[in-house]
Amino acid sequence: MNDTTSASLLNQPAADPRLWLLDPAVTFLNHGSFGSCPRAVLEFQHGIRERLERQPVRFLVRDLEPLWDAARAALAEFVGANSDDVVFVTNATTGVNTVLRSLQLKAGDELLVTNHEYNACRNALDFVAEQSGARVVVAEVPFPLRCEEDFVLPVMEKVTPRTRLALLDHVTSQTGLVFPIERLVRELSARGVDTLVDGSHAPGMVPLDLRRIGAAYYTGNCHKWICAPKGAALLHVRQDRQQGIRPLVISHGANSKRTDRSRFLIEFGWTGTSDPSAILSVPEALRFMAGLLPGGWPQIMRRNHNLVLAARKILCATLGIQPPCPDQFLGSLAALPIPDATTTTPSKSPLYLDSWQDQLLDVHQIEVPIIPWPAAPRRLLRVSAQLYTALPQYEKLAGALRELVGR
User: Fold this and answer.
1) CA 206: distance to chain centroid?
2) The whole model's pTM is what?
3) CA-CA distance, 160 to 141, in Å (whole number)?
4) Which pLDDT tens digit goes with each residue over 21-77?
5) Could you tell me what percentage of the chain is helix, strand and coil, using 3-state DSSP and rounding each to the nearest 5?
6) CB under 8 Å to 302, separation ≥6 — which residues?
């Protein structure tokens, strides 16, 4: 075994959990929902906030733009993009909304999406379709699945001459699947269809080369696997599509006389007064996380991938099921079907809390999401792997599941 697959190394966290603020009394296996920011990065962010408040006018009017440019450059290098094609938004849902609400859609246009799309972004797609008279077309990608064609064929079969845009996940939230996004973008482009990639989970989980992927639009979070503070995400727009994309908030840039940078950068560079500290902390998060393992980010990604595979093996044995997809279609998330819910009472939370999820936390002090998919009462349990987690925590989850399923 190499350094990332050794069972002995997976049996302990790869980084000291105390580097994060996570409650040590809780077994936290839900990094995928909101991430967790290391103490050192939060301290860096606090320093930015103090600098802002010492002289707000100087910071926001004079200092911010070069700092914003430097943060964009660092992130662009990490995701394999030109910095002039990258701007910051607060989260990937905002990125999806920004693109969708910039498009000039008309009645009869078709917007293609899969059944794995994140609910919030699917709602945005439905909204713009209703406003414009466009039609949402859903490709049913199976789960479980066995090969790359299971991703590609359902999508391509739904393309028609009226297909205007495809909204596709890179890494799905509910099912944890890594889509073959480069191939999908290429084949859709050959049919004249632009792709908006919802890469919410991808930065820091899987290697990224946005130039190579070639999507018209790509958005992804920095607060999840990069472990930046909440409120930092990227929106990448291919240069030939930038003229048509406007920020959700139209501000001073709309009539700026500047000619030293693109209208795209000018408008997204200022959308009103806000706290830019999360965005400006992204380079520090990239640097800090890379320093936690000798092999930097490539080793982080390999280690988390191998840990989630080992965790999935334990949980599949506990549930008496086969893995629902081959290993190569996972990053640092894995979702498994569990017995149907016995009640379908709607949760008060928009983020779907399940009675088993409550029991796992209240009785066993395990934080892990249980997600209704494809629809209640059917559901999935999803686990995340991050440097602060290790195999004994997933074994604890397996023991709790045995109690819940009565095995």
Assistant:
1) 11
2) 0.96
3) 18
4) 999 999 999 999 999 999 999 999 999 999 999 999 999 999 999 999 999 999 999
5) 45, 15, 40
6) 4, 295
> 202 and 220 in contact (C-beta within 8 Å)?
yes
Answer whether 89's CB lies under 8 Å from 95's CB: yes
- Which tens digits make up the pLDDT trace of 278-294? 999 999 999 999 999 99
Compute the mean pLDDT over every residue in the chain, rounded to the nearest whole number: 95
Share of the chain above pLDDT 90, in %: 92
3-state secondary structure at position 221: strand
* Residue 304, token pair as written in the block: 């988390």
Axis-axis angle for helices 355-364, 391-405 (nearest 10): 120
Burial of 367 (0-12, 13-18, 19+ CB in 10 A): middle
Domains and CATH numbers, the chain: 7-29+294-405 (3.90.1150.10), 42-286 (3.40.640.10)
pLDDT surpassing 50 at residue 3? no
Lowest mean pLDDT across 116-130, 236-250, 347-361, 389-403: 347-361
Q: Can you tell me the distance from the alpha carbon of 407 to that of 397, in angstroms, rounded to the nearest whole number?
A: 14
Backbone φ, ψ for residue 335 (5° rounding): -120, 140
The tokens describing 69, both together, are: 């440019």
Residues 402 and 366: their CA atoms lie apart, in Å, by 14
How many angstroms separate the CA atoms of 362 and 380, rounded?
Answer: 19
Contact by Cβ (8 Å): 95, 233? yes
Compute the average pLDDT of residues 386-390.
98
Burial class (CB in 10 A: 0-12, 13-18, 19+), 344: exposed
Residue carrying the six token digits 């990608």: 141
Sign of CA dihedral 9, 15, 16, 21: negative
What's phi and psi for 349, nearest 5 deg? -90, 140
Q: How many CA atoms lie within 13 A of 164 on its CB side?
A: 19
CB 14 within 8 A of CB 22: no
Q: CA 390, CA 399: separation in Å to the nearest integer? A: 15
List the one residue out of 350, 389, 341 whose CA is nearest residue 366. Answer: 389
